[in-house]
Design a protein that fits this description.
The chain is 5% helix and 46% strand. The chain has one domain (19-209): Jelly Rolls. The chain has one helix at residues 199-209, and strands spanning 33-41, 45-48, 51-54, 60-62, 66-68, 74-79, 84-87, 92-99, 104-117, 127-131, 135-139, 143-148, 152-159, 161-166, 174-178, 181-186, 195-196.
């Protein structure tokens, strides 16, 4: 993962509902709540059901919402199960599912950086997965980071373990990462063997996703 300096400019947060999951009049937002915004930098907006809203702390996010940040923007999200997502600058994250009752969480990071602290999975059917254009990372209660572009994905395990494979099911091979290890995945290729993550790589992930002056 590459370090970068950031200019704190405008940040755009877009949340869009897919037509297939549009709510009925009787369906409450609470039934589709995925989590809430707990910190953000600096100015954000929410686009939902053809409305543009000003994003604020404690705003509720729904299933299938998309978080999109511009250069300099950062967003911190607390999911319904207590997991924490730090979305870096120039990133796009879709919350596909967040169901704490069954401990099932599915996210899609299309590009950019994400630092996630997932709660430990204790239910047999539970899962916490992040999908990217080229890879899938599945965790069992851990802290991990991702850097994603259209052709590759870097995954760093900071605590616990992460199982990484190519998103293309025809690509054979997977890697189990333990704390302090990383892998690189390219389109059409199996993940690279687990290797130690340097302090510089770990620090770059922190720098890219942290929100200054927030708890």
């Amino acid at each position: 993962m590459r370090g970068a300096s950031f200019i704190f400019g405008r940040c755009l947060l877009l949340t869009m509902l897919l037509p297939s999951v549009a709510s009925t009049p009787a369906e409450s937002h609470e039934s589709r709540a995925a989590g809430r915004i707990t910190a953000l930098l600096p100015e954000d907006q929410v686009l939902r059901e053809k409305q543009t809203l000003a994003a604020v702390k404690d705003m509720v996010l729904l299933w299938h919402d998309v978080v999109k940040t511009e250069k300099g923007g950062r967003v911190r999200i607390e999911l319904s199960d207590g997991s924490i997502l730090n979305v870096g600058s120039e990133a796009q994250l879709r919350i596909l599912k967040s169901e704490p009752q069954h401990q099932e969480t599915a996210l899609e990071l299309l590009y950019g950086r994400l630092l996630a602290s997932a709660i430990r999975i204790v239910k047999p059917s539970g899962k916490f997965r992040v999908r990217t254009p080229v890879a899938v990372a599945g965790v069992v209660g851990t802290q991990f980071g991702l850097r994603v572009d259209s052709e590759s994905t870097d995954v760093v395990c900071r605590e616990g373990s992460v199982l990484v494979n190519n998103r293309d099911e025809n690509v054979i091979g997977e890697v189990l990462l333990h704390a302090g290890e990383f892998t690189h995945v390219e389109r059409g290729k199996a993940p690279s063997p687990a290797a130690p993550a340097s302090p510089e790589r770990l620090q770059a992930g922190d720098d890219a996703t942290s929100i200054p002056n927030s708890p």
